[in-house]
Design a protein that fits this description.
Belongs to the cytochrome P450 family. InterPro entries: Cyt_P450, Cyt_P450_B, Cyt_P450_CS, Cyt_P450_sf. The protein is α+β, with helices and mostly antiparallel strands. The chain has one domain: Orthogonal Bundle (Cytochrome p450). It has 16 helices and twelve strands. The strands form four sheets. It has a five-stranded mixed β-sheet with strand order 1-2-10-7-3. A three-stranded antiparallel β-sheet has the order 4-12-11. It has a two-stranded antiparallel sheet with strand order 5-6. A hairpin with a 2-residue loop joins strand 5 and strand 6.
Length: about 375
């Protein structure tokens, strides 16, 4: 365990080992509810901390604890069925084909930004279809999800993002109340357990979580997998020959380059000891999926190296226990459709610039590439 500073100077504990991270996630004395943070009362007086409100100043499964988390998950989980994900497969394949057709129309020798042309629009179109987001709202949703991941934003920009959230997501709810359909927003509006149902704030913040997580994580999963293969051509050759499976590529990408590298915040309800370090009651903790994925004690001495051919032990990139991501099957499904289709269409795909010139997204939370310029042939 090490003490770090998040943007704005927020103090937090970070763990670098897989076993300790898993222990923390499963520890009933570690909460995700801001009420257990000893510094929460100071957030409004610290402008540089504005960005954290979009992560913990909300009420959804990401920011609740104990019975309240169980209640929200119970209301939401029935909408995330294997049947619904399977039913999306024809749409995923259609969108993949349309995006690949558009890329193929690019003149020979002209670079294509894979993020903008493929990795980004695929999950955005899928998640908007899943949640029944009308076309005229896509732009607002995309902007919000990009902005909330940007942990370099100024206090003014972070406040503006919170303002857009407060307008765009209630507008989606109002639209779906007036135009209900066979979609998850309609189901969440109607979700109930006897007399219990989501409040307006819970509905808004749940949509923020599910649309954001369902989009941003898949964008980076696809981009990170393509980048990993193109910078490891020996493994790409073995994948294309069938020696290494696409499932292995996806799981190794999730371990080695998780879409969410570090997630804020959890809080110690009382003083606890983790790995010989005492964490005080009310202290903040970040979940460090990237560090855990590179832990040599868990994944072997070459844990820092991408190697889809090597069998690894479990990774934590989708969480564990009651906080495991309920959208994980859909993210895998999209990646397992998008990746083989991309390389089948463009087997000569390669980076258009040196690998060290490609810039990552401006975030310590999300891990991905702000652009991924490629030559298709």
């Amino acid at each position: 365990m090490v003490l770090i500073e998040l943007p704005g100077g927020i103090p937090a504990w970070a763990v670098t080992r897989h076993d300790l991270l898993k222990e923390l996630i499963l520890n009933p004395l570690v909460s995700k509810d801001k009420q257990h943070w000893r510094l929460w009362s100071q957030v409004d007086s610290e402008p540089a901390w504005t960005w954290i409100k979009g992560w913990i100043g909300v009420r959804n499964m990401l920011s609740t604890y104990g019975e309240e988390h169980t209640r929200l998950r119970k209301l939401i989980s029935p909408s995330f069925t294997a049947r619904r994900s399977k039913a999306l497969q024809p749409s995923i394949e259609r969108i993949v084909a349309e995006l690949l057709d558009a890329m193929e129309a690019v003149p020979q020798g002209q670079p294509v930004d894979l993020r903008a042309a493929y990795a980004y629009p695929l999950p955005m179109r899928v998640i908007c279809e899943l949640f029944g987001v009308p076309d005229h709202m896509w732009g607002d949703m995309a902007r919000i999800m990009e902005e909330i991941m940007d942990t370099t934003a100024t206090p003014e920009a972070a406040a503006a993002t919170l303002g857009r959230i407060a307008v765009a997501l209630p507008a989606l709810v109002d639209y779906k109340r007036a135009h209900p359909g066979d979609d998850l927003t309609t189901e969440l509006i109607n979700a109930r357990d006897q007399d219990d149902r989501l409040s307006d704030d819970e509905l808004r913040d749940t949509l923020l979580l599910l649309i954001g997580a369902g989009h941003e994580t898949t964008v980076n999963l696809i981009g990170n997998a393509v980048h990993a293969l193109l910078t490891h051509p020996d493994q790409l050759r073995r994948v294309l020959s069938g020696e290494i499976s696409w499932e292995a590529v996806v799981e190794e990408t999730l371990r080695w380059a998780p879409s969410i590298a570090t997630l804020p915040l959890r809080f110690a309800i009382q003083e606890i000891e983790v790995g010989g370090v005492r964490i005080g009651a009310g202290d903040a903790i970040v979940t460090t999926y990237m560090s855990a994925g590179h832990d040599p004690d868990q994944h072997g001495p070459d844990a820092a190296r991408f190697d889809a051919a090597q069998e690894r032990d479990e990774h934590l990139s989708f969480g564990v226990g009651v906080h495991r991501c309920i959208g994980a099957p859909l993210a895998r499904q999209e990646a397992l459709t998008a990746l083989p289709a991309l390389f089948a269409r463009f087997p000569g795909l390669h980076l258009a610039v040196p690998a060290d010139e490609i810039k990552q997204v401006p975030s310590f939370i999300a891990h991905g590439w702000s652009e991924l310029p490629l030559l298709l042939r």
